[in-house]
Write a structure and sequence with these properties.
seven-stranded parallel beta sheet, Dihydrodipicolinate synthase family protein, alpha/beta, Aldolase_TIM, DapA-like
Length: 298
């Protein structure tokens, strides 16, 4: 498969939180507005139907409409949907839906219904790549129990199955090994709280959580970090890190949605089985967000 000269997964792509009504229905009007607001505030695009977008608890109809809403708001070039599913056939169907909706790339977890071996992982990505869109692998060994180590990612890239990886292992050492094994594979920051470490190591993009609430400051941090402007990036990273580390916590969806509410956006409720934050968690997120607002970062 030919990789487009313009790689649409580069830059700051926000893994979008999904606005829900009080009755827990998807609020598509608010979602379209949120996508537009993110781009207006400097983000390069959106990743709907990621784990932050609660895709696991959407009906197939809702999941399809979320992608279509984002494309209507921004155009397909700026939309990289998550197409993860338990089976490769279903994931491929989601990739085909993304293609037909006009998207330019998709993001895919490895098989995660069980601890898949290397042959299963290769077969999974091969099947989804048949949809014809460039695939960004999503490595999240913490949640999936399947680790896309640099050697396996290099093999997936060599076969033409993936063009980039959202790296969520939390181990910045992998960036250097990956650059040696697969220099043309784009590394994307996958966890907000290792942004600076992976940016300095050569990341080409950030699939981001906290820009849902603080897009301008987050984009400023990313641009400074990838440019090697540590005089700008390091103080900003220290200011934001208390919030950024929530992206790697179990309650990341609730935390980010609460921060959105605090800065005047609609974060709103989450769908079960997620439950509201504990009082002490809510107090911690609220204090850190209000501190960021007071510092002019919202």
């Amino acid at each position: 498969m030919t990789v487009p000269q313009h790689r649409p997964w580069r830059g700051v792509l926000v893994a979008t939180a999904l606005p829900l009504t009080a009755e827990l229905a998807v609020d598509h009007a608010r979602f379209a507005d949120h996508c537009t607001w993110l781009v207006e505030n400097g983000c390069d695009g959106v990743v709907p139907n990621g784990s932050l977008g609660e895709y696991q608890v959407l009906t197939p109809e809702e999941r399809a409409e979320v992608v279509e809403t984002a494309v209507s708001a921004l155009g397909g070039e700026r939309v990289m949907p998550g197409v993860s599913a338990y089976g490769a056939a279903e994931a491929r169907r989601w990739a085909e839906h993304a293609r037909d909706a006009g998207c330019a790339s998709v993001m895919l977890l490895p098989p995660n219904a069980y601890r898949a071996d290397e042959r299963s992982v290769l077969a999974h990505f091969e099947e989804v790549a048949k949809a014809g869109l460039p695939v960004v692998a999503y490595n999240n060994p913490i949640d999936t129990k399947v680790d896309l180590v640099p050697e396996l990612l290099a093999k997936l890239h060599r076969e033409g199955f993936v063009q980039a990886v959202k790296e969520f292992s939390g181990d910045p050492r992998r960036a250097y090994r990956l650059a040696e094994l697969a220099p043309e594979l784009d590394l994307l920051i996958g966890a907000d709280d290792v942004l600076l470490e992976l940016a300095v190591a050569g990341a080409k993009g950030w699939v981001a959580g906290y820009p849902n609430a603080l897009p301008r400051a987050s984009v400023q941090l990313y641009r400074a970090a990838v440019a090697g402007d540590l005089d700008t990036a390091l103080p900003l990273y220290r200011q934001l890190h208390q919030l950024l580390r929530w992206d790697s916590q179990v309650e990341f969806v609730q935390a980010i949605k609460l921060s959105m509410d605090i800065v005047g956006r609609h974060g709103g409720p989450v769908r079960p089985p997620r439950v509201p934050l504990l009082p002490e968690q809510e107090a911690a997120v609220r204090a850190a967000t209000e501190k960021a607002v007071a510092a002019g970062l919202a």
